[in-house]
Amino acid sequence: MKKEDIKRFMPVAIFATFLMILYNVYAFNQKHWEIHTVIFPALRPLFASLILGGFPVIVLWIFRFTYRKFWVYLLTNIILDFMFAVFPVHFIFQDVLGIYTLINIASWERWLLFVAEAVIIYGYFKWQDQIYRA
Predict the structure, then answer these.
(1) Phi-psi category of 46—alpha, beta or left, where left has phi over 0 and alpha has psi -120 to 50?
(2) Mind listing the pLDDT tens digit for each residue in 5-50?
(3) Which of 65-74, 86-95, 99-108 has the lowest mean pLDDT?
(4) Helix, strand, coil proportions of the chain in percent (round to 5)?
(5) What does the pLDDT look like over 105-134, one tens digit per residue?
(6) d(C-alpha 124, C-alpha 16), whole Å
(7) Residue 29, CB half-sphere, CA atoms under 13 Å: how many?
């Protein structure tokens, strides 16, 4: 990825990561899941390795490939969020590896929440992009 693209999309990646951290803290308090395998014990309420590692990188690449194409962005997020929240990632993490167990939220509810979050993230990006281009 070009340095210029990283500068353009990094604010939205940081914002998306912040939103995901807020959701994880809320979900922990509402007992949406129980985490069985923790990489960073001090950050137990969070899926820290994903949120602070892969997630911002994924956001950067999604925006890089869908820049100025909202419907492509939304479709991409619908598919990727489904893969994470419902199948196959959720199935592998919960049923195969036993990393976590969903308790007070269904996988489809989590998927809808992630898609709604993607729309909020895109709104933030549009606002931020106006500042960037000014």
Answers:
(1) beta
(2) 999 999 999 999 999 989 888 988 899 888 887 776 776 666 666 7
(3) 86-95
(4) 75, 5, 20
(5) 999 999 999 999 999 999 999 999 888 776
(6) 9
(7) 5
Coil, strand, or helix at residue 30? coil
Under DSSP, is residue 102 helix (H, G, I), strand (E, B) or coil? strand
What's the whole-model pTM score?
0.86
Reported as type and span, the H/E element at residue 75 is helix 70-85
β-pairing verdict for 33-35 and 100-102 = antiparallel
Report the phi/psi class of residue 37: left, alpha or beta, with left for phi > 0 and alpha for psi in -120 to 50: beta
Neighbours of 53 (CB within 10 A): 13
Q: Which residue has the tokens 């950050």?
A: 43
Output the CA torsion sign for 24, 54, 109, 99: negative
Which residue type does 41 have? P
SS3 38: coil
